[in-house]
Amino acid sequence: MLKSSISVRVRYAETDAMKFVYYGNYASYFEVARVELLRQHGMSYKALEDQGIWMPVRDLQIDYLLPALYDDELTVNVCVRSLPSTRMKFEYETYRGDVLLNRGTTTLVFVSSQSGRPTRCPEVLMQLLQPYFESEIME
Amino acid sequence: MLKSSISVRVRYAETDAMKFVYYGNYASYFEVARVELLRQHGMSYKALEDQGIWMPVRDLQIDYLLPALYDDELTVNVCVRSLPSTRMKFEYETYRGDVLLNRGTTTLVFVSSQSGRPTRCPEVLMQLLQPYFESEIME
Amino acid sequence: MLKSSISVRVRYAETDAMKFVYYGNYASYFEVARVELLRQHGMSYKALEDQGIWMPVRDLQIDYLLPALYDDELTVNVCVRSLPSTRMKFEYETYRGDVLLNRGTTTLVFVSSQSGRPTRCPEVLMQLLQPYFESEIME
Amino acid sequence: MLKSSISVRVRYAETDAMKFVYYGNYASYFEVARVELLRQHGMSYKALEDQGIWMPVRDLQIDYLLPALYDDELTVNVCVRSLPSTRMKFEYETYRGDVLLNRGTTTLVFVSSQSGRPTRCPEVLMQLLQPYFESEIME
């Protein structure tokens, strides 16, 4: 399993007239979380794009329990439970302190930026990630 | 059943470096669609807020099939299949011409803006919506 | 002189915790206004990009007089007072009814998307715009 | 003079189809910069709002020299050159490494959130800021 965690402070730009973070803006917090997870495991998403691989989002799902407010310092935990193939699934939890605010998932696919066609997880990324899933592979 | 449809043109601000609409921005297109559905059935969401009712989003789910691009004129179809109670569920489909780009759902809850507590769908909204679900009620 | 006008309804996504439209979001309303001005004069900005011309913004200036609120139907007037050369300057006024909310300007430059270098206003756009500035040229 | 500096990494959500940071999104980077400047000098903007003071933006001006790109780590320098009265002016410079990308200013006004009326800079903020402008006051 891959795990990581980021801290993000709510900007005024991200709030709405209820004084809550607008529900669509968590998509961007989740993006920061998964990009930092990749970076911490040796892979920059930007480098991946430079090598001709895009990772568009195939599906998004969020359960909102409590709103985040302006200036809150949020923690977004992110994890990947299975080795990617043609897809890579990320799970997220957003906390303020020890209060869970929401839970979500995204599935991303690997696409060749030249052809626009789906492709498998690039070898370079596979080799970086495999050690974290060894035990599962052995089972 | 309630049904409606809006047309929205993709702004440059809403695209990302893949030249696609950023995946989180559909949340805002869906918002426009459900607010216009309510307006077309006699209820302004702003008026609802002025009466002390907020409708925060409880969950969001989107399946992305194809990306929307800059300047695309999109059609977002929205429908409500059952009479709201403490919740109101909206279903969405985003089209470019006759090509389906994505499908999503949101569940919104009714909350008193004073107490922050969940409440039932306000009577005024119930009375506006009930005629559209008559047949289901009779069954 | 070129003139145009668009109507835009404020989305919840665009408001902030003061219940105002977030000050940075007018950049996107101004974008819609200038793109529609070009379209109404025969030039799609998307087509321009497809021909290898980008128009990044060189400067932005806004004076905010009064805030716009959720669900407001705004009118953004846009005008171009002089024929573009290597730059094209747009002026904007945002109204709610007959109340002026803000005034702004942007200067855009023409850039080759291949080389990233500044270029002159493309001939095809010049020919479309010239008739609107004839009198000034004759003077 | 007050000075501060923040570091911000460009999110995919903030890029546009030119692969640049969308020009309106710097408004939100500038917001982060000025809020952190206040925090570092002992004043949380959130606390100010809780005391009934809003600081809406009165004017914004940006000169864009070079674009910021996805995943860039930007430095935004912010300074305040004169003691606030009914207004507070902030100046910004955005850098990638030692390359200046853009320069901007915002003027914010103090408003009572109850009455919506302009007010003077609150005493508590004045007292925190005054030491940094002592020499100017003596002149």
List its traits:
homotetramer, 7 strands, Thiol Ester Dehydrase, Chain A, 35% strand, two-stranded antiparallel ribbon, 139 residues, five-stranded antiparallel beta sheet, alpha+beta
Give me the secondary-structure topology.
Four copies of one chain form a homotetramer.
Chain A: E1 2-9, H1 26-40, H2 45-50, E2 53-54, E3 57-64, E4 73-80, E5 87-96, E6 99-109, E7 111-112, H3 123-129, H4 134-138
Shape of chain A: globular
CATH topology of chain A: Thiol Ester Dehydrase, Chain A
Strand content of chain A: 35-45%
Low-confidence spans of chain A: none
CATH class of chain A: Alpha Beta
Q: Topology as H/E string of chain A?
A: EHHEEEEEEHH
Structural class of chain A: alpha+beta
The CATH H-level superfamily of chain A is Hotdog Thioesterase
Oligomer: homotetramer
Q: How many distinct domains of chain A?
A: 1
Alpha plus pi helix count of chain A: 4
Q: Tell me the radius of gyration of chain A.
A: 16 Å
Q: How many beta-strand runs of chain A?
A: 7
Largest sheet of chain A: 5 strands, antiparallel
